[in-house]
């Protein structure tokens, strides 16, 4: 496994809480924690502070993803998933959590791991204004043009 690592500067705004950390070698997501206790009623959302600010190298972005275990067990997700942390952003990383469970509240405690940060390279596009686009096999087919679930009955036939 390639163990080369990108150095990312982290300012801990809450020194009692840990740096983002990967649970296993090779993981893509480094877990983020909440600095506060928060209870989310069914359907409720909240902007939750993580206690860290970062400085990414140019050409990188940090994406804030939900944790699948919390999603599967409790319906906890992120409103704007994945959240985009720009390389120039120096403020505190916050996570816009939402409780999708229709019945149960979700109680989070300070220090709980609530989300994961995935750091990626990205391309900056030069958007070129043209009158027409090159042809492709897919063309403008989308939104289920290749079919859906096996049980789905097509309404267009
Ligand atoms: O889940 C998120 C998403 C964003 N941010 C921070 C970092 C990001 O660089 C900044 C702006 O995010 P975005 O561009 O998604 O929001 P916007 O509504 O377009 O705000 P702006 O006008 O400031 O760009 O907010 C977070 O801390 N967490
Ligand atoms: Mg923006």
TrEMBL record:
Its cofactor is Mg(2+). InterPro entries: dUTPase, dUTPase-like, dUTPase-like_sf, dUTPase_trimeric. It comes from the Bacteria. Its EC number is 3.6.1.23. Substrate binds at residues 67-69, 80, 84-86. Pathway: Pyrimidine metabolism; dUMP biosynthesis; dUMP from dCTP (dUTP route): step 2/2. It catalyses: dUTP + H2O = dUMP + diphosphate + H(+). Residues 18-147 form the dUTPase-like domain. It is an enzyme of class 3 (hydrolase). GO terms for molecular function: dUTP diphosphatase activity. Pfam families: dUTPase. Keywords: Hydrolase, Magnesium, Metal-binding, Nucleotide metabolism. NCBIfam families: dut (TIGR00576), PRK00601.1 (NF001862). PANTHER family: DEOXYURIDINE 5'-TRIPHOSPHATE NUCLEOTIDOHYDROLASE (PTHR11241:SF0). HAMAP family: dUTPase_bact. This enzyme is involved in nucleotide metabolism: it produces dUMP, the immediate precursor of thymidine nucleotides and it decreases the intracellular concentration of dUTP so that uracil cannot be incorporated into DNA. Belongs to the dUTPase family. This is Deoxyuridine 5'-triphosphate nucleotidohydrolase. It comes from Nocardioides hankookensis. The gene is dut.
